[in-house]
Specification:
The structure holds two protein chains of two kinds.
Chain A (H helix, E strand, L loop, with lengths): L2 E8 L4 E6 L4 E5 L2 E4 L2 H7 L4 E2 L1 H5 L4 E4 L2 E2 L2 E2 L4 H17 L9 E9 L5 H10 L6 E6 H8 L4 E8 L4 E7 L8 E4 L3 H15 L7 H11 L10 E6 L2 E6 L1 H9 L2 H13 L3 H8 L2 E4 L8 H9 L7 E3 L6 H12 L2 H6 L3
Parallel strand pairs in A: 1-9, 9-10, 11-16, 16-17
Antiparallel strand pairs in A: 1-2, 2-3, 4-5, 4-6, 7-8, 11-12, 12-13, 14-15
Helix pairs in contact in A: 5-12, 6-7, 6-8, 9-11
Chain B lengths: L1 H30 L13 H26 L11 H9 L11 H4 L17 E6 L15 H18 L3 E4 L9 H10 L4 E8 L9 E6 L6 H10 L7 H8 L5 H25 L4 E7 L3 H5 L4 E8 L3 H7 L2 H22 L7 E3 L2
Parallel strand pairs in B: 1-2, 1-3, 2-7, 3-6, 4-5
Antiparallel strand pairs in B: 4-6
Helix pairs in contact in B: 5-12, 9-12
Classes of the chains: A alpha/beta, B alpha/beta.
């Protein structure tokens, strides 16, 4: 009898999460790096570094962030290899140590709602030999499935590369039920870096530092606290107040997300609009931006009001949904979905 | 309360199975390099259905007979109507040996669900109720046959514009027996059957509402009465009836018919209530209408209005209102079709 492990994977631009049927759950930064030379290899004592470890040692690495806007970067062999390393790492974390005879790994992977069929095929090809069977689904659909929110619900999944919208109407979402914006976590980082550089031209700030600060302090509306960070200014560690920059950068998300949310709502059958408005769920890392549900609810006031809520566990909600799909898929379907 | 929770849970599980099946189908399409279903050349799903029929006939019939044997009135204590009871008695086909009393085998027989048949919807039969010497319900100035034909024509235009192929059982004012309507539908190898009717409740002229039927036994005497009225010009003998009823309650077709009926009823009520706030939602119901019995595809009968109500009769006499009804039917059919596939094939066929 084959030992079966079902996994749900949220393959993200910034972070990737995995939930497995053996109860294990992990999230890693979606970075993969190879030592740049023999010296680096000797220092690091590893062939390849993944996740936070890769980011921390990036100066010694040929660092790759293989997913762009939630999709595998096509045409780069190194990025394909990076995705494969990332996936193998995720599987190792949940206890899969290479392909063993008699083992059977079934994976459900979430991709952005607007992923093209060629993107999906490309991902499928790159996962050959890593998992036995593969089901690729729209990420917000995986979220909805995991939450049993398949009817009269809108999922807004704010990741690093994309913000995905999906209205669940009791069917597998079609193109008209979904939207993808490229305004997401990364665009906030870029904007925040730009604003900080404008205000503190002498400060030496990198995108990685900005990303860390955003994850600690991000907010829209009224800030709960001052955003005080430390960065070198002319080589001297200096405390900077970036509260206004943080607010401005995070609020760049508001207009496009509000507009898309209301536009999608307007396409829902009139008698169900109120129910959907009352069931809007934020997931993904962007779901952690403080004040965002309230700001979106304020935007909904103009169309009759609504309720937007965070998920308690926004980072794993996608991979947990993928796992639920993997567990529910019939045996016969898995056989047909061999990777 | 527990029963309601159980039903809700069961409905949710069914929904999950369905969307999961759709996700798997999409993946298989991508693996095979097939273009999205919405732009794929039209296939004749009906043919596929027929081609597969021999593989499913026996289990379907067994499941159908078991279902009938299990079917009991959930709330009402009224006696089972004659037609429904007859269906239960004759449900086991003569060529299938009954292995044991159905109540004993109920747990052993797996229900065949529609999820096993993820088929496309391309060709639709529109059946405008009544016609010719059979006016259906009528007021001094308006008859059901005229309204159903007009709505049918409007609906046909909408469906064709959206790429569906439409087959009409009648395109002018003539009487077509129900048997002939069913034959036309079955010969056309269509994917779904939509019959359009208008209600008339002379005992309750203050009432007005919309309702959609799909095939199944009913324990409501008023529905039996309604079915009897609609079945009047059938052209079927009792022997024919016995054959027709053999296996007609098979789960897969019944599930699909229910899905279609729910989708149409939702659109009908949602749309028309905006125009008439007093309109009542009489819901999705089961009834043994003959056109539903005799057609070999998912089939529904929509009662799109109520001529016995003076206000609604006035609205039904207006072309704009009939266009709204056609629009609602269109959106209901389209929503059902979208769940399986999207239409592409152009063209139409007319009969009658």
């Amino acid at each position: 009898m084959a030992e079966i492990l079902n996994v749900g994977i949220d393959l993200g631009t910034s972070r990737s999460a995995i939930s497995a049927s053996n109860g294990e759950r992990f999230v890693v930064d979606s970075f993969v790096g190879w030592p740049v030379d023999m010296v680096a290899k000797k220092v690091l004592k590893r062939e390849v570094l993944i996740g936070h470890e890769a980011v921390s040692n990036r100066t010694m690495l040929d660092l790759h962030r293989p997913l762009e806007r939630g999709l595998l970067k096509e045409g780069s062999e190194k990025d394909v290899e990076a995705v494969r390393e990332l996936l193998k790492h995720l599987l190792r974390l949940v206890g899969v140590n290479g392909r063993r005879a008699g083992s059977n790994v079934r994976a459900v992977v979430g991709v952005p709602a607007a992923a093209l069929r060629t993107n999906k095929q490309y991902l499928r090809n790159s996962m050959k030999g890593i998992v036995d069977s593969l089901l690729i689904v729209s990420e917000p659909f995986a979220v909805a499935y995991g939450l049993d929110a398949l009817l009269h619900t809108m999922i807004i999944d704010i990741g690093a590369g994309t913000t995905d919208f999906c209205v669940m109407k009791g069917r597998y979402p079609t193109e008209e039920d979904q939207r993808t914006l490229t305004v997401a976590g990364d665009s906030i980082d870029t904007q925040l870096l730009k604003l900080i550089e404008e205000r503190f031209p002498q400060a030496n700030v990198t995108i990685y530092m900005v990303r860390d600060w955003k994850e600690r302090f991000s907010f829209v509306g009224h800030g709960p606290e001052r955003c005080l960070v430390t960065a070198p200014v002319k080589g001297v560690p200096t405390e900077l107040d970036i509260t206004n920059e943080m607010k401005a950068a995070c609020e760049t998300l508001l207009a496009p997300v509000s507009e898309t949310m209301i536009d999608l709502l307007a396409r829902v059958e009139p008698e169900f609009q109120e129910r959907v408005r009352a069931n809007i769920i934020l997931s993904g890392g962007g779901g952690l931006i403080r004040g965002l549900p309230e700001a979106l609810e304020a935007a909904l006031a103009s169309v009759g009001g609504g309720h937007v809520r965070y998920m308690d566990d926004p980072v794993f909600v996608g991979s947990d949904g993928g796992l639920a799909l993997a567990m529910d898929a019939p045996e016969g379907d898995w056989e047909r979905l061999s990777a | 309360m527990n029963n309601e929770l159980g039903m809700r849970r069961e409905g949710n599980e069914r929904l999950k199975r369905r969307v999961l099946q759709e996700a798997v189908t999409e993946n298989l399409d991508v693996m095979r390099g097939l273009p999205p279903r919405a732009v794929r050349p039209a296939r004749r799903a009906g043919r596929i259905w027929l081609r597969r029929a021999p593989f499913f006939l026996v289990p379907l019939t067994l499941a159908g007979s078991t279902y009938l044997a299990r079917q009991t009135a959930p709330t009402s204590k009224t006696p089972q109507p004659r037609l429904a009871a007859a269906a239960a008695v004759t449900a086991t086909p003569s060529f299938v040996r009954r292995p044991a009393p159905a109540t004993d085998t109920a747990a052993d027989v797996e229900r065949v669900t529609s999820a096993a048949f993820p088929l496309a919807v391309r060709r639709i039969v529109l059946d405008a109720g009544h016609g010719g010497a059979d006016p259906g319900a009528a007021t001094p100035t308006l008859s059901e046959k005229t309204i159903t034909l007009d709505i049918g024509n409007r609906l046909r235009a909408l469906l064709e514009r959206d790429g569906f192929t439409v087959v009409e059982t009648r395109s002018d004012d003539r009487m077509i027996p129900l048997r002939e309507r069913a034959r036309l539908a079955n010969d056309s190898q269509s994917d779904i059957f939509v019959s359009i009717h208008v209600n008339s409740i002379v005992k309750h002229t203050a009432s007005r509402g919309v309702e959609t039927y799909y095939l199944g036994p009913t324990n409501d005497p008023s529905l039996t009465e309604l079915a009897a009225a609609e079945n009047r010009v059938s052209g079927y003998s009792i022997a024919d009836m016995r054959k027709l009823l053999d296996g007609v309650y098979a789960d897969a077709r019944r599930d699909e018919s229910h899905e279609l009926a729910a989708s149409v009823q939702q659109e009908l009520f949602g749309t028309l209530r905006n125009l008439d706030p007093k309109l009542e939602n009489w819901g999705v119901k089961r009834a043994p209408f003959l056109v539903l019995v005799a057609t070999g595809m998912p089939a529904i009968l929509a009662e799109v209005g109520c001529l016995s109500n003076e206000q609604e009769a006035a609205m039904l006499s207006q072309a704009e209102y009939r266009q709204k009804i056609a629009g609602a039917l269109f959106h209901g059919i389209r929503a059902y079709a979208s769940a399986n596939d999207a239409p592409q094939q152009k063209g139409s066929e007319h009969h009658g």
